[in-house]
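Quick one: structure for this chain?
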Amino acid sequence: MDKILVHGSHSLNGSVRISGSKNSALPILAATLLTREPCTISNVPDLSDIHYMLQILSHLGAHVERASGVV
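Got it. Here's what it folds into:
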């Protein structure tokens, strides 16, 4: 595992954007079937596995909308 060692007297600050994970998004999408409430899931990667899952959810009766990484 990589690590960064920082030497000095100044504290670090900032932010890092983490890309979405297919392995996290797929079970989260499946779990949306457990509620009738609207669900919004962000940072969903644009991959074929995700597209297939969204098609499956649609065939099971879910209303699915996707735009810019948000489902």
